[in-house]
Design brief:
The protein is built from seven helices and eight strands; from the N terminus they run H-E-H-H-E-H-E-E-E-E-H-H-H-E-E. A six-stranded mixed β-sheet has the order 3-2-1-4-5-6. Strands 7-8 form a two-stranded antiparallel sheet. It folds into two domains: 10-181 and 190-197, Endonuclease Chain A (Endonuclease, Chain A), CATH 3.30.870; 202-234, no CATH class. It is globular, with a radius of gyration of 19 Å. The chain has helices at residues 10-16, 31-41, 43-46, 57-69, 141-157, 161-173, 200-204, and strands at 21-26, 50-56, 83-87, 97-101, 105-111, 127-133, 214-220, 228-234.
């Protein structure tokens, strides 16, 4: 898998292919944008009959509170056209990842973008895109399957009869989601890690070829305009 960085137009990617299933995690959710624009204009959602959106419980409550003052913001199609399922955690539910699947094709988007008008449009976001096509481009299959297992774990921890039904429908309709992965996976394929069971740091360290000494990450600024900061942390040496 080639490694390259390029400008990704999320609207174009979401308008490119049709899919029958969608699993979305987002911290913040733009209900009006989703219902009035995304469902109408994104080919990945237009005729998609199995859409699940999982969002932070606090943001869900704020969405409902704002809708009492402005009815236009109320998610009118929630649990009719798509499932809207809040997740309550001690902090915030913060993963942002979109999984689209059909019988032969899949699209996985993961990064910093919420499923909002700004997150998919004007914000400075960092997003990776992965494609799957049966018998043509299957290198990213392990990433799709690990993402689906993550959604299954969410359904186990925060039960919803409709969410479980949607996951089972996807699994029944998308044969490649459960097919055996290649015995020689792409070494450049990233691993999907979560902190549902253990902290991210504990999950991440075994993936490194040797003990890391420096950790760098990038994050967006809250200042006006698209700005990014690079943060570097020097890690302590292990005790003798």
């Amino acid at each position: 898998m080639s490694q390259k960085t390029c400008r990704l137009h999320l609207h174009d990617r979401l308008k490119k292919h049709e899919f029958e299933h969608a699993l979305i995690t987002t911290y913040n959710f733009g209900a009006s944008f989703f219902e009035d624009y995304a469902l109408e204009n994104f080919k990945s959602l237009q005729d998609n009959g199995n859409i699940s959106v999982l969002l932070d419980h606090g943001q869900y409550q704020e969405l409902l509170a704002e809708a009492t003052e402005n009815p236009d913001l109320f998610p009118k199609l929630a649990n009719l056209r798509y499932l809207l399922h809040p997740i309550r955690v001690p902090g915030v539910f913060h993963p942002k990842g979109f999984l689209f699947a059909g019988k032969k094709r899949g699209l996985r988007l993961i990064g910093s973008a919420n499923f909002t008008q700004d997150g998919l449009g004007s914000n400075a976001e960092l997003v990776a895109a992965f494609d799957f096509e049966a018998e043509k481009n299957e290198m990213a299959l392990p990433l799709f399957q690990s993402a689906f297992r993550f959604f299954e774990s969410l359904a186990d921890r925060w039960p919803s009869e409709q969410l479980r039904s949607n996951l089972n429908t996807l699994l029944d309709d998308v044969p490649w989601m459960s097919q055996p992965a290649s015995e020689n996976p792409d070494p450049d394929l990233p691993a999907l890690l979560s902190n549902l069971e253990t902290p991210l740091w504990i999950n991440w360290c075994p993936c490194c070829p040797r003990r890391p000494r420096t950790f760098r990450c990038c994050r967006g600024s809250t200042m006006p305009g698209p700005r990014w900061w690079i943060m570097s942390f020097r890690l302590p040496r292990p005790k003798a």
